[in-house]
Fold this sequence. Notes:
Helices cover 39% and strands 18% of the residues. It is α/β, with parallel strands linked by helices. Helix 3 packs parallel to helix 4 and helix 8 runs parallel beside helix 10. The longest helix has 18 residues, at 140-157.
Amino acid sequence: xxxxxxxxxxxxxxxxxxxMVRETFCRVDDMIYPLFVVPGKGCxxxxxxxxxxxxxxxxxxxGEAERVAQSGVPAVLLFGVPDDKDERGNxxxxxxxxxxxxxxxxxxxxxxxxxxxxxxxxAYTTHGHCGIPRGGEVDNDETCRQLAAxxxxxxxxxxxxxxxxxxxxxxxxxxxxxxxxxxxxxxxxMSYSIKFASAYYGPFREAADSAPQxxxxxxxQMDPANRRETFREAAFDAEEGADILMVKPALAxxxxxxxxxxxxxxxxxxxxxxxxxxxxxxAAARGWLDxxxxxxxxxxxxxxxxxxLIITYHALDAARWMREGKF
Length: 327
Ligand code: PBG
Ligand code: ZN
């Protein structure tokens, strides 16, 4: 039995009816806003390929934290852009390192704002890889030990959650054990669990000055062609103690989010990455599409696919649109 008994347009006729039968929602509580911290004072530098997103020095982070808290967005994801780098990424675990300073500034200004730190080495290594190379390859186990030291130093500085983004095997377990043995057993870990080797990270590499100087990241990030492998990545991370799993990028991988949502009970985050942001901003700047409507549609698509949380450079705009009832 179909038409004419059934007419799907009956419930689409008015805004009120559509509101009543709506299936998916975005909440401000779902949003996580990325921030970039750089050394210096009074430094506020816009990233050219990410209009509206700035690198900020620690003294300006307090004000930014207040702006985020005001918007209702509950959490930030902090990236450091250091001025010193070495072969092993040691500056990533310095007590006075740039992320450590940033965390302290954010927590001082807004103790209730959740500060999540990105744990990786690529912005801190001279060669720009996410780990420590040996014989032309990134050494997995040596890198895990270094990442654990980075994570512990972030939490010591006051981070509420750590998010390793390196894609080494076993790093979730190694970091978890290090946190536990340093007295941080209650600090949650969000794993960049399903991270594809993607060209959508292009603008971010300008923002974080983290482009690899030789080769690429395909020896550790996932092949965009693979689906079954995502189940194994997710299962390993869950077993090793991850509290939240992330899929990254988001828009070209919504099928992966859906698959994971059906197979796994952990909270899922989608990372709406820099290239996805840049495409929307560039087209909107030319008047080629309506920025707000496209962003609303994209974020809803991530939720519909199964995301609980969305890491997005649009978070503050989205929060405003939600407040204004335009979402
Ligand atoms: C570094 C890292 C990257 C992103 C987050 N953490 C880049 C990369 O792996 O090359 C990408 C974020 C974005 O594009 O918005 N490990
Ligand atoms: Zn990295």
